[in-house]
Amino acid sequence: MKIGIITGASAGLGIELLRAAVKRCPDIDTYWLIARRKDRLEALKTEFPEKTLRAVPLDLTKEESFNTLLDLLKAEKPEVKLLVNNAGMGKLCDFDTVDRESQLTQIDLNCRALTAVTHTCLPYMTKGSAVINISSIASFAPTPRMTVYCSTKAYVQSFSRALREELKPKGINVLAVCPGPMDTEFLGVAGCEKGKSRTFDMLPHQNPTKMADTAVRDALRGKSVSTMGPFYNFYRILAHILPKCILMKFTRC
Ligand SMILES: NC(=O)c1ccc[n+]([C@@H]2O[C@H](COP(=O)([O-])OP(=O)(O)OC[C@H]3O[C@@H](n4cnc5c(N)ncnc54)[C@H](OP(=O)(O)O)[C@@H]3O)[C@@H](O)[C@H]2O)c1
Fold first, then answer.
1. What is each CA distance from 11 to 41, 42, 125, 210, in whole angstroms?
2. What residue segments make up the domains of the chain, in order of their start?
3. What CATH number should be reported for the domain whose range is 2-251?
4. How much distance in Å is there from the Cα of 164 to the middle of ligand 1?
5. Does the CB atom of residue 167 touch ligand 1 within 6 A?
6. CB 54 within 8 A of CB 33
7. Which of 96, 108, 144, 197 could be a cystine partner for 252, CB 3.0 to 4.6 Å?
8. Ligand 1 binding pocket includes 56 (Cβ within 6 Å)
C-alpha cells in the first residue's frame, strides 16, 4: 500500500496540499490525514471518492500521538511515498508579554512534532519517496514580534537541508517550503489579522492553492527549497546578502 501522510490536513494549506498531492501523485492510493479536528478530516472523504482517506485525529503537541502513529505504521506496514509536515502555528506578540505555554507550543508543534513524525515515518520511506516540510519566509531572517515563530521556521529550514543531504543516497528528497502570508486560519490564531501588523498588511499575500501545487511539484522535481513568486524569491536572495541588523528593520511585525 502506497500512502501519503499529511499533518495539519484539516484546514488552510494542508487541505490544498492534499488536493495537489492527489493531482500530482497518481501512484498514491491512500492518505492518512492528521489534525485535531476529526470532523474536518472526515468531511474531506467525499471530495476524493477514488482515494482512501483515513482520518487520524492526533494532537501533535502530545507525546503519545507519536506512539499512536508508530503503532499504525507497524500494524499496516505501508510504503510512505509522501510525508507532508504542515501542521504549524505562530503568535504575533512581544516575547515577554505572552505566557510561556503559548511560546513553547510553537516549538512543540513546529519543531518537535515535525522531527518526531519524520523520524517515525522514515523507516517506511523508500527510493522515490519525498518529505515536504512547511517552513516560512520568516525563516530567512529574524522577525521581531514573531521571535519564537521565526526561530522555529529557521529550524525547519536547517533540519530539511541537512536531512536532504543525509537521505540523498537513499533516493529520498526533502523539501523546505517557504510561503509568504496566506489568508488561512493561521492569521487569526497568530493574531495578525488585517490591521494588527503593518508588515503583514504590506506584504503580498499568497494563494494557498498555488503554493501547495508549487510545493508538491518542487518536491517531485527533487528541489531543496520552494518559494513562490518573484517578490519572495528576490527576498530570499536579499536575505542571504544583507546583514541581519538591516533586514530586521523591515521584518519587524
Ligand atoms: N498562513 C500563513 O500566513 C503562513 C505563512 C507561512 C507559513 N505558514 C505555515 O503553513 C503551515 C500551514 O498553516 P496554515 O496557514 O494552513 O494554517 P491553519 O489554517 O491554521 O492550519 C493549521 C493546521 O495545523 C493543525 N494543527 C494545529 N495545531 C495542531 C496540533 N496541536 N496537532 C495537530 N495538528 C494541529 C490544524 O488542525 P486542527 O486545528 O484541526 O488540529 C490545521 O489543520 C504552518 O506550518 C504555518 O506555519 C503559514
1. 9, 12, 25, 15
2. 2-251
3. 3.40.50.720
4. 23
5. no
6. yes
7. 144
8. no
Closest atom of ligand 1 to 138 CA is 6
What is the Å distance from ligand 1's center to 169 Cα? 31
Pick the residue whose CA is nearest to atom 23 on ligand 1.
8
Per-residue pLDDT of the chain in tens (253 residues, 90 and over written 9): 999 999 999 999 999 999 999 999 999 999 999 999 999 999 999 999 999 999 999 999 999 999 999 999 999 999 999 999 999 999 999 999 999 999 999 999 999 999 999 999 999 999 999 999 999 999 999 999 999 999 999 999 999 999 999 999 999 999 999 999 999 999 999 999 999 998 899 999 999 999 999 999 999 999 999 999 999 999 999 999 999 999 999 999 9
Is residue 189 in contact with ligand 1, taking CB distance under 6 Å? yes
SS3 of residue 219 by DSSP: helix
